[in-house]
Amino acid sequence: MSLSLIAKTIKASPTLALNEKAAILREKGDPVIHLGGGEPKSRAPMDAILSAVNMLNSGEVRYAPADGIPELKKSIIRYTEEFYHRKVNPENVIASSGAKQAIMVALQAILNPQEEVIFPAPYWVSYPDMARLVGAIPVPVLPEDGTFYPRLKDIEMRVGSYTKAIIINSPNNPTGAMYSEEFIADIVDFCERRGIYLIMDDIYHRLVFDGRKPISAYDYTKKSVEESKLLIVNGVSKQYAMTGFRIGWAVGNKKLIEAMANIQGHQTSGPSVLLQKAAVGALNGIQSSVESLRVTLENNRNVLVDQLRSFDGVKVHVPDGTFYLFADFSAYEKDSQKLSNYLIDKVMVLTVPGKEFGLDGHLRISYCGTIKDIEEGIERMKWALDPNSPNELYIGDRKLVRDWL
C-alpha cells in the first residue's frame, strides 16, 4: 500500500495508546492501575451538564459557525479579561474541538514546509508530530542547566532564519514545572523583537500549587492584540475535568484567527454546538469545582512525592502545577520504554515513558486519580524494582512471586 510521506512519519499518540491498553486490561478483569492518564476523576460541573441537557431538550442541535458560537465567544472574552487582563473582541477568538485542534490549526496557519517551531523539552508528546503534519521542523530545546526550567538563552541558541514560532506550555506537561514570570516576560519580549509567533499553551494555567497564581503573557507585551503575534490557547478539558467534551479556544490577532477559522471550517466545521453550550455553562457557572479540583490535585501531589521519596534511586522534581510528575528512574533502567513495559507486564501499573516527551530515563506519573491508586501503584512499582523489597506481593487475591530479578 502506498502512503504519503507524512503518514509514514506520524505515529500513534502514546498517551492515547496507553489509555486504550488500560481499557483492554480492565475489560479482561486485570487489576490494572493507570498512573499514566491525563483525565481528572472529578465530574464535569453541574452547570455544564445542565446547559447541555437544556440544549438537547430543545431538539435544535445544528451546525455551529466555524469559529464558535457567539455565546461561547462572549464567555471566552470575559474569561480572558478576568484571567489575562486583556479586553478582546469576538474576532480575536476561535473555539475549537479541544485545545489540541486550536494549536494544530494555528500551526497550519503559521508554518510553511521546512520552517521551524521551537518548544522547551521535556514537551507534550504531540508537539513534534503536529509540526510534521504541516511539513515543518520540530526543534525541542533541553535546558542546558539540567533543570525543567528553560532560560531565554536556551531558546535563543536554537533560533535561526527558519524559526517561525515558539510554543510555551506552562505549567508544563509532563514535568509540572511552572515557568517564572521573568522567563515569560523575556520570551514575550524576545518574540516581539524578532517577529516570531509565540503560542502559549495554557491548558493547565489555573491548576497551580503552593500559593502560585496563573501568569498572563499579555501582562508583558508592549503591543496591542492586533499588533501582536501572541496566541493564547486554553480550554475546559483539564481545569473543569471536561476532557471528553473537546472544547478549547485560542485568542490572538484578527488576521491569524480568521486564517485559523478558514482552515478549521474545511477540516471539521465548527465544534459541536451541544458541547460548546456545555463549555458556556462551565465558564459562566459556579467556579468552585476548579478550586476543589486544584486542592485535590495538590494533596495528591504531596502524597505521590512522599511515596516516591521513600523509593531509593528515584529522583523527584516537585511539580508546581498540572497533575503530572516526571521522575528520574535511570538508576534502575535508562530505557524508559523498556521500564514502562516492564511495569505493565510485571505489576500492571501504567506509566508513560519519558522518551516520548524528549527525555529518556524518566517516567511520567499522573496523580489525577485516587490516593488509593497512587499508594498502591507506587507500592507495586517499588516491589518490582527495589531488590530489597519482599519476594511476594498480593494484588487482591492474586499472589505474585518476584522470580525474575
Automatic annotation (TrEMBL):
Q: What are the UniProt keywords, alphabetically?
A: Aminotransferase, Pyridoxal phosphate, Transferase
Q: Where is the Aminotransferase class I/classII large domain?
A: 32-380
Choose any GO biological process term that the UniProt entry carries and state it. amino acid metabolic process
SUPFAM superfamilies xrefs: PLP-dependent transferases
Family matches, as Pfam families: Aminotran_1_2
- Going by the record, the broad EC class of this enzyme is transferase
For this protein, the Enzyme Commission number is 2.6.1.-
Q: Which family does it belong to?
A: Belongs to the class-I pyridoxal-phosphate-dependent aminotransferase family.
Read off the PANTHER family from this record.
Answer: AMINOTRANSFERASE, ASPARTATE AMINOTRANSFERASE
- The protein in question is named Aminotransferase
Species of provenance: Stygiobacter electus
